[in-house]
Each structure stands twice: as C-alpha cells, then as structure tokens.
Amino acid sequence: MNNQEILIIDDEPQIRKLLEISLESNDYKVWQASTGKEGIVMAANHPPELILLDIGLPDKSGHDVLKELRTWFNKAIIILSVQNSEEDIVKALDNGATDYLTKPFRTAELLARIRSAIRRNQQINNNDTAITFGELQIDLTARTIKKNNELLKLTSTEFNLLVLFANNEGRVLTHQHILKEIWGVGYQTETQYLRVFVGTLRKKIEDNANQPKHIITESGIGYRFQ
C-alpha cells in the first residue's frame, strides 16, 4: 500500500468522482479542488506527490494555474483536458507539465502515466548515479552506456540526449525543450537537427530503429522515453 497523495483540480464532479474511485482502488490518497484558486491553496498547504490538473477551470485558465504552481511546486503535474490541439499540448508542456492526457482517457493509461511520473520524481530525489531501463544501463559518473552488458559507443551529444530522455522517463519533451537543453537557445527552431540525432541514437540503443520501444515520437510535439 503506497498511500501517496494526489490532488485533483477539476471543475467536473463526475470526473473527480471517477478519478477518486480509480485512484483510491489503487491505494492512492485523494484530495480534490474544483477551482484553480482552491487547488493552489490546497497544494501549498498540503503538497501532494502529484497533481492532476484540468485546463478548463471556472475561475482561471489551467495554463495560468500551472505556471503559478511551477514557481514553487517541483513534483509531477499531469494535465487532463478536452483540449487536444498541438498548440495547447506544447504550451502546457513548455510551461512545466509533466504529461498531458486528453479526455476521455483510459484509466489504465492514466495510472501508468502516474506511476511513471512518481517514479521519475523519486529517481531525481535519490540522485542516482546509474539509471537502468531493461537492457540499458546508463552510468552517469563514468558517462558510459551498456546494452545487455555490452558497451555502446555514443558521442558526447548522443550521451547527453539519452540522459535527458532517461531523466524524464514517461514525460513528453517538446522539440523546443530538448533543443534548448542540449544545444542552447539559438537552436530551438532546428527540429530537423534534432531528428537526425534521435535517428542515430535509436540505431545504437534500439533493437529496431524503425520500431523503437524506448524513444517514442509524439507527432508534432516531441519525444517520450519509456
């Protein structure tokens, strides 16, 4: 039993009830808020492990709530919204959302995203010097990558890119965010540049670069590492 606490900020009672039932049946403790202001106050007074945030709130935009929360709240925030345009998704992710799910969503998928987001938080807090994903072992200190215990030859940029993905396991990273983190502000429009490096990295770490199981493309938005 994990007893990890999740705060739901959503103005739809039916959605909150559905989420409450699903989360509590998986041993999460649930808090609820129906407005952005109420959610911010609850998060400040009793910081949860994760926040589920709706974009369409009655008192203020969920995007504004997200930006305000991100001035001090450093744990996972997953957006749940009926808005599914690339513009809205990219905006939320660039403002600090950990993940984005479009309503209606499958409960199993939401629970998987929650587990992934919480696991990522715990890895960051533990300051691990090694990261393992199935057959991949990343040694952050030695700056080496092994696949099935065999050393892979990665360039410095490929290594940095893989570490960025691994440290954000389960989270969608936008093209602009990746380019800024790896190459700097001046490269934020060079999406073709990024595709080339992702392609070469996939050839080295994936069993089949054409059907990747680790570096997943989120069309028009960016990439997710799993």
Briefly characterize the structure:
The chain is α/β, with parallel strands linked by helices and 226 residues long. The protein has helices at residues 13-24, 36-45, 62-69, 86-94, 107-126, 156-167, 175-183, 191-205, and strands spanning 5-9, 29-33, 50-54, 76-81, 99-102, 130-133, 136-139, 144-147, 150-152, 172-174, 215-218, 222-225.
The averaged pLDDT comes out at 88
- CATH fold topology of the largest domain: Rossmann fold
What structural class do the secondary elements suggest?
A: alpha/beta
3D shape:
globular
The CATH superfamily title of the largest domain: Response regulator
Query: Taking Cα atoms only, what radius of gyration do you get, to the nearest Å?
Result: 18 Å
Order of helices and strands: EHEHEHEHEHEEEEHEHHEE
Low-confidence stretches: none
Helix content: 40-55%
Strand order of the largest sheet: 2-1-3-4-5
Number of domains: 2
Main beta-sheet strand count, sense and barrel state:
5 strands, parallel
Instruction: Tell me the name of the CATH class of the largest domain.
Output: Alpha Beta
CATH architecture assignment name of the largest domain: 3-Layer(aba) Sandwich
Find the count of extended strands (DSSP E, 2+ residues). Answer: 12
**Individual helix count:** 8
